[in-house]
Amino acid sequence: MKRKRLTQLFPFLLPVRRTQRKLFFYTEMYFDRNHYAKAKAPEFLPFCVYETKSKLLNENTGMDMRYQENKVFNLRLAAETVNGLLIRPGETFSFWQRVRYAEKNERYKDGLCVVNDELITVPGGGLCHLSNLLFWLFLHMPLTIVERHAHEIKDFPSPDEDEPDGVDATIHEGWLDLKVKNNTNLTFQIEIAIDEPYIYGRIFMDQAKRYSYEVVNRDKSFFKKEGKTFERVSVCRQVIDNESKQVVSEKLLYTDVFEIGYVLPEGTAIADEKA
């Protein structure tokens, strides 16, 4: 049996623990010698090199839809902190280094969040939607992943059936961050816009690029362990020559294993844990 944390045994200690973690979290960031991206530009760089969109509301959560609407409110606050942000050569992007300022003028509303493996409502819930979108944008750029964390459990199916699995990036202030570093001689710029029913993301660059990137799944499978269903999937990035449209190379970025918290479609092949 998994050993319970002290804050699970004594919930009244949780606010103290959160404050302590945030203090250590930002103090460590202050002294870690990284140059964090902070500058914004009033105009976007000349070359839009990748864009994507994601449906804001997910009807598959099984929870009251007002929490999805609250999520959209929270996303609007958080998006303003990264919209227009420049990531210059040698700089590191940190999700929390920017988004922690989102509540300066308005407070977050209650949204959905997974805490201790349970789907609950908390102030600021739903910000993973933004970190997921940003990570998806970054995967299509020659940026180096410094820190990224997968969700341990996928509670409901994605509203976009064409989206590859294992491309999420969960965040938790004081504990989990999303960080990428620009080890190139190029400058990147983020645009985040919300125009319901979608949230839009774009990446601009100061130069036209010769190569594009495609993110694909490999070796996707499901298996059972201790009565639970898990998915294992590899995430690979292809480099494509823009002129010839040919795949130049393919690289394995990482392999994710996570629990499936919903009923899979009938007929899905699920291996026994021994296999």
Give a description of the structure.
There is one protein chain. This protein has helices at residues 6-9, 14-31, 66-82, 95-99, 128-139; strands spanning 35-36, 47-55, 86-87, 91-94, 110-115, 118-123, 144-147, 153-154, 179-181, 188-195, 198-205, 211-225, 228-241, 247-260, 270-271. The chain has 275 residues and is of the alpha+beta class. The protein starts with 5 loop residues before the first helix and ends with a strand. It has a five-stranded mixed β-sheet, with no helix packed on it. A four-stranded mixed β-sheet has the order 1-4-9-7. It has a domain at 34-209. The longest helix has 18 residues, at 14-31. It is built from five helices and 15 strands. It is globular. It comes from Desulfitobacterium hafniense (strain Y51). This is Vancomycin resistance protein.
Record keyword descriptors for this entry.
275 residues, four-stranded mixed beta sheet, alpha+beta, Vancomycin_resist_VanW, five-stranded mixed beta sheet, single chain, 20% helix
- Kindly estimate the percentage of residues that lie in beta strands according to DSSP: 35-45%
| Topology order in helix (H) and strand (E) letters | HHEEHEEHEEHEEEEEEEEE
Please report the total strand number as a whole number.
15
The rounded Rg comes to 19 Å
Q: What form results from the Cα inertia axes? A: globular
Let me know the largest β-sheet. 5 strands, mixed
Counting helices, strands and paired strands, the structural category is alpha+beta
Low-confidence stretches: none
Q: In DSSP terms, counting alpha (H) and pi (I) runs of 4 or more, how many helices? A: 5
Mean pLDDT: 88
The percent of residues in helical segments reads 10-25%
End-to-end gap: 23 Å
Biggest sheet, strands in spatial order?
8-14-13-12-15
